Amino acid sequence: xxxxxxxxxxxxxxxxxxxxxxxxxxxxxxxxxxxxxxxxxxxxxxxxxxxxxxxxxxxxxxxxxxxxxxxxxxxxxxxxxxxxxxxxxxxxxxxxxxxxxxxxxxxxxxxxxxxxxxxxxxxxxxxxxxxxxxxxxxxxxxxxxxxxxxxxxxxxxxxxxxxxxxxxxxxxxxxxxxxxxxxxxxxxxxxxxxxxxxxxxxxxxxxxxxxxxxxxxxxxxxxxxxxxxxxxxxxxxxxxxxxxxxxxxxxxxxxxxxxxxxxxxxxxxxxxxxxxxxxxxxxxxxxxxxxxxxxxxxxxxxxxxxxxxxxxxxxxxxxxxxxxxxxxxxxxxxxxxxxxxxxxxxxxxxxxxxxxxxxxxxxxxxxxxxxxxxxxxxxxxxxxxxxxxxxxxxxxxxxxxxxxxxxxxxxxxxxxxxxxxxxxxxxxxxxxxxxxxxxxxxxxxxxxxxxxxxxxxxxxx
Length: 461
Description:
Blueprint: E1 9-13, H1 17-28, E2 32-37, H2 45-50, E3 57-60, E4 73-76, H3 85-92, E5 96-98, H4 100-107, E6 112-116, H5 121-134, E7 142-146, E8 164-168, H6 171-174, E9 183-186, H7 194-197, H8 200-212, E10 219-223, H9 227-230, E11 239-243, E12 254-258, E13 261-266, E14 269-275, H10 284-299, H11 304-312, E15 322-327, E16 330-334, H12 341-348, E17 355-360, H13 369-378, E18 381-385, H14 389-396, E19 407-410, H15 414-424, E20 430-436, H16 446-458
Parallel strand pairs: 1-2, 1-4, 2-3, 4-5, 6-8, 6-9, 7-8, 9-10, 10-11, 11-12, 16-20, 17-18, 17-20, 18-19
Antiparallel strand pairs: 12-13, 13-14, 15-16
């Protein structure tokens, strides 16, 4: 449903990817856009240049309450907290608060598939996107976006009613949305972003909104193996598809793995999808991602051949257990996306080799004790770096005789951690950057951190 934006005054808080895309869209449709960010004009020079041809008002270096005067709408970019004082004041004034994802959902002419979760959503969204592209015949198209890659608000008017849209949705986006995708998947819910949501209950409530506005004709996809996801089944209004490692109960539709084969139990039929050896990604968590993608693809009525071909050629997404190189007879991996201890634990379970683990970054007010206990059992050396180093060291404690963990080392920044890891390598190990913290103490985002890590590892000689 198109909306008349002509002469509407819109304040967009946050000049990140989503805010910039929304600013382009609204300005092209006659809105007067004020783009606000606490960063300076120098810090945002590249962003300002990208929008220089548009009549956009910039308000930088502050979040002054006066920005709200005369506004019709306030929109938040993904990284902006709904508890920001300026947003709280907007709410007090009765202003509507939205974001690019909700506006996209109001406009998109075709059904939407939304994917959320604490871990694995980018890998799963990417894989479902590949399946959708393979299984969609021209003139129809498959579109992949949202929290992954490019926001689709820029392309919404090119999307046709017969197309397929696959969106990755974060808790930050979902907490402002009042429309659910027609197919909504919750991969898992584990403690994450508690620096933003304060409690696991609030974080779960934000994730659950992906199901809250579905109708009886819609489909939910949940994980049988994850309590956080499975506990949301009471919210399901329509059809339920599931995924998990083991065969579901009779009458339960979904995907599973049994005797080296992936299966789909669906519409009263049991169908073999592909051999387990078709999955090229390491780790049980990635097998779960593949099973999730196949369940979502089944909901999209994508043929099994498109599923199989997409899995067989899928080597993963950059910065997610990405193999960098072999050096000193050891394999170096980049898992910069692991911004929570639970993700680092999942990465550790992917390896049987001795591991030199790089942990650090900025903490999200998450517990480190479980990961620390796992490190004592499965890791040979831990190298700690960054802002959260002290908290991680407290959780790790000391090494003890008879344990796998032989040493704990503290560094200032990631580059020093890479050099320290290089000095510890003896051969036959896996060196794994799976930090468990965000990148914002040293880098703009996890992608920049991963790229720098990759560079420093490739420069080892």
